[in-house]
Amino acid sequence: MRRAELGDTVRIVGSPATIAAGYADRTGTCYGFTTPSVTGVRVIRPALIDDALSVGFHDGTSAWFDPSLVAFLDVHAGLMATVGHRRFVRSQTGDWVEAPESD
Fold this sequence. Notes:
Blueprint: E1 9-12, H1 16-21, E2 27-34, H2 36-39, E3 43-44, E4 52-57, E5 62-65, E6 70-74, E7 80-83, E8 86-90, E9 96-98
Parallel strand pairs: 3-5
Antiparallel strand pairs: 1-2, 1-6, 2-4, 4-5, 7-8, 8-9
């Protein structure tokens, strides 16, 4: 099973923890990852694994999840990201490709 990465479309797996938090079976976008012991974020998880993925939802909410509760659906091709003055677009393979500058 492919682990979700930044920009991927994902689905939250149904589990007692995700059901209780109201996120089970919701679809969203993976915003990134962190180490909870370093950042102190609250993570929805079944066990104390020191790894978490941030998922944003269409209603503007987001939450941190144990990676085992985040199922990869799609690479979200065409997604744009800007870092400084550089723009990147997500390809069909999931790679980030620098976009040409536009006026």
